[in-house]
Write a structure and sequence with these properties.
Helix content is 40%, strand content 13%. The chain is of the alpha/beta class. The strands form three sheets. It has a seven-stranded mixed sheet with strand order 2-1-3-4-5-6-7, with helices on both faces. The protein has a six-stranded parallel sheet with strand order 8-9-10-11-12-13. α5 crosses α7 (135-161), α6 packs across α7 (135-161) and α17 (415-427) crosses α18.
Length: 627
C-alpha cells in the first residue's frame, strides 16, 4: 500500500547558533577522513555510524518482541521453529550481543551451556569438523561462532517476515544495483516505512536534535547503502526542511556520473564526485554565502529544474600527503561487535577483528588492468606521501581509538612504500598489526616479506583473477601464474596470510581455461601459497577499458538502456567464451573445501553436476614454479 511516508512529527526549529555545522552519516573510511579535513578547516563536523546504532537498537529483547508482533500482524509465519521459540530467542539476544561486543570468558562459558541458545536452522547444522583452539581462546571462538549463527537465524527471520530488504551489510541492494532508472527507487520510497526503517528514523532524529546540523552528508560506498540514505533524506526533507543534504562516496563516483533524472533532488540538494574534501568545503562556503553556485566543484545540483554539473576549473586539489589523519572521535567503539561466521583465519579478519582504516597512497600506481575503472579519479589519480607522514597519522589514530590494528585500504599498495613504511615502523618502535591489498609483483621477494612481517604485517590480499596466463596478459594484469606462485609463497614463508581475488567469465574465457584456473587454485592452496580466496563472475563496467572498447575484447554490449539515473554495470554477450554461470556452484563448492584444507585429492569433475574437460595442467605445476 502506498501511503504518506512518515507519521507527523514536531517541525524542526532553526538553531540560533551562527556557526556552520555538518553531520556526516555512514560506515566507510570517507566519513572519518572528511571529519579530520573539515575540522582542520575550522568547520564543526560530527559523525555517526548509523549502521551500528541501528543494529544495536534492533537486536535487543524489547525490539525483538516488537518484530515478532509485527510479523504476526503482517500474517507472515516463515521459520515457524523460530516463532515457536520466540521467548527463548528474546531472552538470549541481549546476552549474545553483549558477549559479541566484549568477548569475555564468563559469557562465553554460559553461551556454550546446553540449551542456552535455541537450536535453530543454523545452529542445528553446525560444522562438527571445526578444530577449536585449546583453553580460553577456543572457548571464546566457539561461543562467537555459535552467537554469530544465532544472530544470523534472527536475520533470516526478519528478512522473511518483517522487512524483505533487511541485510546485515547492504539494505535493499537489489533495487539499487544497476538502477538505470529511478522509477523503482521512487516507487519504494512512496511505501510506508518498515518497522526497522522507523527505528532508523528515530536514531536519525536523535542525532539531528543533538548536533543541530546545517548540512547532513551521506557517504554511500555501495548500492546497498543507497536506499537507506534516500529514506533518511526523505525523512529530513519532511521534518527538517531547513537542513541541506549531500551525497558522495564510491557509489556516486562510479554510478551517477551521467545523472540526468531530477527526481533524486526531491530528497537531496547536492551530489559530489571523486574526493569529497574540495567539493564539500565549497558547498559549506556556498551555504554561508561565501561562494556562488557556479563556483562549486565536481557537484551535481538542480538548477532551473534541470540536473546541472557544477565544476569550476581549475579544481581545488588537496593532495594525499597534505591531508590530516582520519578522525575517529565520537564513534561508539564499545558498540561494535566481533562476529565469527567462517573459521578460516583470513576470512575471519573481515568480521572478527577491529581495524583502523587508512590509505597508504591515493589511487593505483599500476592503473592498467582492462577490467578496472582506470579512468576514474579513485584509480587513475595516483598520489603518494612519505613513511614519516604515515606513521605520524598511525600514532594519532592509535591515540584516538586505542586500537593498534590497521587495514590499509589501498587499491594496490606500492611495494616501495610498504618497504619504507615497514622500516619506519621498526625504527620508531611503533607496534601495530596490519594488512593491505597488493599486486603480486616480483618486488615482493623474501627479504621484503620478512621485513613486512617484522613490522607487523599479518596478511595481504591481491588479484589472481583468472589464473590463466593468456587471460592475465589480455587483462594487462602485469603478472603470470609462476610469479604469483613465488610471491604468495614468499609471504606464506613468513606467516603472512594471503587472500586471492578470483574471477571467472572474463571475455573469451573458455571452459578449459576455467577448469585450468580451478586446478591452479587447488595447487596454490595445497602448496600453502594462499590460505583464502573468493570467486566472482566478471562484469563489464562502463568506465573500464573493456566497457569503452568491447570489440577489442570480443564481446558485444547488450544493455541496460540508460534511463537517466545510474550507469555502471553492463550486460554483454561473449560469443567465443563458455557458459560461465553454470560453473558458479562447482567453483564455490571446491573453494569451500580448499578453504578448510580438505579434498585436495578429489577429482575436479566431482565438484560439477555436468561433464567437464580434464585440466591440461600438470599436478606439479605450482611446485615446479617454487622449485
Amino acid at each position: 500500500m502506498i501511503t504518506t511516508p512518515f507519521a507527523p512529527r514536531e517541525p524542526y526549529m532553526a538553531v540560533a547558533d551562527a556557526s556552520f555545522r555538518i553531520l556526516i552519516l555512514s560506515m566507510s573510511l570517507g566519513l572519518r577522513k572528511l571529519k579530520g579535513f573539515l575540522e582542520e578547516k575550522g568547520i564543526v563536523a560530527e559523525q555517526c555510524d548509523l549502521s551500528i546504532e541501528l543494529f544495536t537498537d534492533i537486536f535487543t529483547s524489547e525490539f525483538l518482541e516488537l518484530m515478532f508482533q509485527e510479523a504476526k500482524e503482517l500474517g507472515n509465519f516463515n521459520f515457524p521453529a523460530i516463532i515457536e521459540n520466540k521467548d527463548h530467542y528474546c531472552s538470549r539476544v541481549d546476552k549474545v550481543i553483549s558477549f559479541l561486543q566484549q568477548q569475555d570468558i564468563t559469557n562465553a562459558t554460559e553461551i556454550l551451556k546446553e540449551d542456552f541458545l535455541p537450536q535453530g536452522h543454523r545452529l542445528s547444522n553446525l560444522n562438527s569438523k571445526i578444530n577449536w583452539a585449546e583453553g580460553e581462546e577456543g572457548i571464546i571462538d566457539k561461543a562467537k561462532h555459535y552467537s554469530t549463527l544465532f544472530i544470523e537465524e534472527l536475520g533470516d527471520f526478519i528478512q522473511a517476515n518483517v522487512d524483505e530488504f533487511f541485510s546485515f551489510t547492504r539494505y535493499a541492494e537489489q533495487i539499487a544495483t544497476s538502477a538505470s532508472s529511478f522509477d523503482q527507487l521512487e516507487e519504494f520510497l512512496n511505501y510506508q516505512p518498515t518497522i526497522i526503517e522507523d527505528k532508523m528514523m528515530d536514531i536519525l532524529e536523535e542525532q539531528i536534535n543533538q548536533h543541530s546540523p546545517d548540512l547532513v552528508c551521506f557517504t554511500i560506498p555501495f548500492p546497498g547503502n543507497l536506499f537507506a540514505a534516500l529514506r533518511s533524506s526523505q525523512f529530513i526533507k519532511q521534518f527538517f526542511p531547513d537542513i541541506k543534504i549531500a551525497f558522495g562516496g564510491g557509489y556516486c563516483n562510479t554510478e551517477l556520473r551521467s545523472l540526468e533524472d531530477p527526481r533524486i533532488f526531491e530528497f537531496i540538494d547536492f551530489i559530489t564526485l571523486d574526493d569529497g574534501e574540495g567539493p564539500l568545503l565549497n558547498i559549506a562556503n556556498h551555504l554561508v554565502g561565501n561562494c556562488e553556485l557556479n563556483e562549486l566543484e565536481r557537484t551535481f545540483v538542480l538548477d532551473n529544474d534541470k540536473v546541472v554539473y557544477k565544476n569550476k576549473i581549475p579544481n581545488t586539489i588537496y593532495h594525499h600527503r597534505d591531508l590530516p589523519a582520519p578522525n575517529y572521535q565520537g564513534l561508539p567503539f564499545e558498540k561494535y561487535l566481533s562476529f565469527l561466521d567462517v573459521v578460516n583465519p583470513m576470512h575471519r579478519m573481515w568480521t572478527d577483528y577491529r581495524w583502523n582504516k587508512l590509505t597508504i597512497s591515493h589511487g593505483c600506481y599500476w592503473k592498467q588492468c582492462s577490467f578496472c575503472d582506470v579512468n576514474l579519479d579513485y584509480i587513475g589519480n595516483y598520489q603518494n606521501t612519505t613513511a614519516e607522514n604515515l606513521v605520524d597519522k598511525i600514532e594519532k589514530i592509535i591515540a584516538d581509538t586505542r586500537i593498534t590494528g590497521f587495514h590499509f585500504v589501498d587499491e594496490a599498495a606500492p611495494p616501495k612504500m610498504l618497504r619504507a613504511l615497514s622500516e619506519k615502523l621498526i625504527e620508531r618502535k611503533v607496534k601495530i598489526t596490519w594488512w593491505t591489498n597488493i599486486r603480486f609483483e616480483k618486488t615482493f621477494d623474501k627479504e621484503l616479506c620478512q621485513l613486512m612481517a617484522k613490522s607487523g604485517c599479518i596478511a595481504v590480499t591481491g588479484g589472481l583473477e583468472v589464473a590463466s596466463d593468456r587471460l592475465l596478459a589480455k587483462m594487462k594484469k602485469g603478472v603470470d601464474i609462476a610469479q604469483v606462485a613465488r610471491v604468495t609463497h614468499n609471504f606464506s614463508e613468513y606467516d603472512i596470510l594471503v587472500h586471492a581475488y578470483l574471477m571467472y567469465g572474463f571475455p573469451t574465457q573458455t571452459e578449459q581455461e576455467t577448469i585450468n584456473s580451478l586446478e591452479v587454485v587447488r595447487q596454490l592452496f595445497e602448496n600453502n601459497c594462499i590460505q583464502s580466496a573468493y570467486w566472482h563472475q566478471f562484469t563489464t563496467t562502463v568506465h573500464s577499458p573493456i566497457g569503452k572498447n568491447p570489440d577489442e575484447f570480443g564481446i558485444k554490449i547488450t544493455g541496460p538502456k540508460f534511463e537517466g539515473f545510474a550507469q555502471n554495470d553492463l550486460w554483454h554477450e561473449d560469443p567465443t567464451g563458455a557458459d560461465h554461470p553454470k560453473f558458479t556452484k562447482g567453483l564455490n563448492l571446491a573453494l569451500n573445501s580448499y578453504l578448510n584444507g580438505t579434498d585436495f585429492d578429489k577429482e575436479l569433475q566431482n565438484w560439477f553436476e555436468f561433464p567437464i574437460s580434464e585440466t591440461s595442467h600438470s599436478r606439479e605445476l605450482i611446485e615446479s614454479f617454487l622449485d
